[in-house]
Amino acid sequence: MATRAETAVLAQPRTLSERLVRLITRSPVHIALIAIAAVWLVPTVALLVTSIRPRSDVLSSGWWHVFSSHLTLGAYGEVIHTGGMGHAFLNSVYITLPSTVLPLTLGALAAYAFAWTRFPFRDTTFLFIVALMVVPVQTAFVPLLKQFRHFDLIPGHTTFPGWAMNTEFYGIWLAHTAFGLPLAIFLFRNFFITLPKDLIEAARMDGASEFAIFRRVVLPLSVPALASFGIFQFLWVWNDLLMALIFVSNPSKQPMTVKITQLLSTYAQEFHLLAAGGFLLMIVPLAVFFALQRYFVQGLLAGSVKS
Amino acid sequence: MSAQAPPLQVPQPKRRFGRSGEGTFRERLNGIAFALPALVVLGLFVIYPAYYTVRLAFYKSDYLFSFTDYIGLQNFKDLFQDKDFFDASHFPPDGAFFNNLRWVVVYISLTLILGLTIAVLTVRVRYESIVKSLIFVPMAISATAVGVIWLLVYSPNPDIGTVNAVINAFGGNPVSWLGKPSTVNYAIIIAYVWASTGFAMVVLSAALKGIPTEIIEAARVDGAGEWNIFRRIMLPMLSLPISVVTVWLFINVIKVFDIIYVMTGTTGGPGTSSRVIAFSMYIETFSGHPGRGAAAAVVMLLLMIPVMILNIRRFKSERVIT
Fold first, then answer.
1. CATH number given to A80-305
2. Could you list the residue range(s) of the whole structural domain that residue B194 is in?
3. Nearest CA in chain A to B125
4. pTM higher than 0.90 for the full model?
5. How many domains does the structure of chain B reveal?
6. Is A175 on the interface with B (CB under 8 A)?
7. Within an 8 Å CB–CB cutoff, is residue A100 touching chain B?
8. CATH number at residue B144
9. Do A277 and B148 touch (CB under 8 A)?
10. Domain ranges of chain A
11. Which residue of B has its CA nearest to A187?
12. What ipTM was predicted for this assembly?
C-alpha cells in the first residue's frame, strides 16, 4: 500500500542528481514534518523529564536542563504510596475489567440474535440500538444515581437495599456496560453477518443447539472483532473521569483519573509529583497501545461512530 | 390504472435485513433469549434513565431528584437566560453554550486541517511510520493525562512551562494562558487538538492511500500541479472519510468535559469562562438545580439527534464505516 501511494505522489528518482533535486525541492516538507513531530513529542518528554528530576531542580531550572540533574524515581514512590496512586491503580483495574467483560459477553450474545436468529421486531430493535450509540451519558446521571441508591425494579419497592451501589463498584460497572453495549452489538452484528451462512446452517443440520453454534462456530471466528471492541472499551473505561466522578462516591474506591484531580490541588506546586502521577496514568494505555496497535487502530476506527 | 395481469413471479434475492418476523416459535424463543440480557440492561440503564431525564427537565425537582413542581419550559428559559450558559449581549457571545460552539468550530477545523496536512505530507517521506505513530500515541491516553501534560506546558512559571520558556527566551513576559478568560478556551482546545489529530490523520491517510494511482498519474501527465492534484482530485475523493471524521469529532466535542475539569482545577474557570454544556450540566445538577441540569442534558441530546439520524441512514444504505 505504502509503495503504491508513494509512486502515486512522485515517481522514484533514479540518478544521484535526481535524488539531490528531490531532496532540495522537498526540504520544506521535511522541515514542516520535523517541526510537527517536535510539537507532538515535546509535551510528553517535558512531563517525563519533570517526573524524574529532583524537586529542587524542577523548581529552579527548566526541564531541558535534564542532563545537569541527578535523576531519581523518588517522585514515583511518593505518589504511589503517600499520594495513594497505587491504591487508585488497583481500583482502576477493579472498575475496568468487569466493565469490559460484561458488555463483551452480553453484546456478543445479543449480536448473535440480531445476525442469525429471527424474532419479531428484530431489525426495528437493531436500528433503535444504532440510535442509542450516541445518547450522551449525561442523560443517565441523575436517574442512575437515584436507582443506585435504592435499586427499585418495581417502583416504590426497594429490591436490593443491601447493594448500596453508589458505595460499591456495581454502579459504575453497570453504567459502563450499558453505555458500551450499543457499540458492541453494532460491531459484532456487522461482523457476525459476514460469516458464511452455510457454516451456521450445517451446524444446525447436525443438531447443534444455538448456544453451541454461538460458542463453537461464531465466537472462534470473530476474535478480531471481539479483540478490537475489548481493547477499545478497556481504554475507554480506564481513561474515563466523568463517570467515575459521578458513580464512585466512596473515596477509597476512586480510580486513578479521579485521584489525580485531587492530587492537582494537594500538590499544586509539586510539579515533579504531578508529572509522576500523570505518567502513571498513561502507563497502561501506552502498554496496550504498543502491544496491540493493530487491534487498537481497528477498534478506534470502528469506535468512530460511538458517542 | 386498469386491472393488470398478476406480476411475473420473479424469484427475489433473499434479503438479510428487514424480514425478521419469520421463524418458528422455537427460533423466535432462541433469538429473544440471546438478545434479552442486553435489552434488559439497555432498558434499565440507558432508555429508562433518558426518559427520566427528559421528564425531569420539566420539573423544578429537589435533592432527591424526584418529580416535584411541574414548571413546564421554565428550566430551559432559566438556562438560556443565565449569563453563564447563554450570553448573547455582546460579540463574540459568551457562556457555556457559545463556548461549546467555539469548541465545535475551532477544534473540528484545526484537527481536520492538521490531520489532513500530516496525512498528505507523510505519504512523501520514508520516515512516515515514525511520524505517524508519534502523532497517534496521544489518542491512547486519557483526556485527564493530556490535561496534566498541558498543565505543565502552559505553566506561567518559565522554568516549568515550555511555552512561557520560549516567550521568555525571546524577551517576552510570561502569560498565564489558563488564568485569562480570553486565552483559556483556546489553550485547552489546542491541547485537545494535540490529542485528537492522530485519529483524523490515520483515517485520512488510509483513505488517501486508497486513491487509485492511475488517476493521479494521469493528472500529472496532463500537467496538473501538486496543488491542483490535491484540490481537485484528492479532496473530492476524501469527502466521505472527512465527513466520518467530522462526525466523530462533533460527538467528541459536544460531550467534552474531562480535559476542562482537569486543566481548570475542577472549576471551569477562571470564573465560568471555560465551561461548556456538559460542564453546566454537571454544575447545575449537583448545586441544587437538578431540573436545570436535566434541561442541559436534553440540549446535549437534541444536538446529537442529527448524528443519530445520520448513523441510521448510513447503516440503512449499507455504507457503514467500521
1. 1.10.3720.10
2. 98-267
3. A30
4. no
5. 2
6. yes
7. no
8. 1.10.3720.10
9. yes
10. 15-72, 80-305
11. B322
12. 0.87
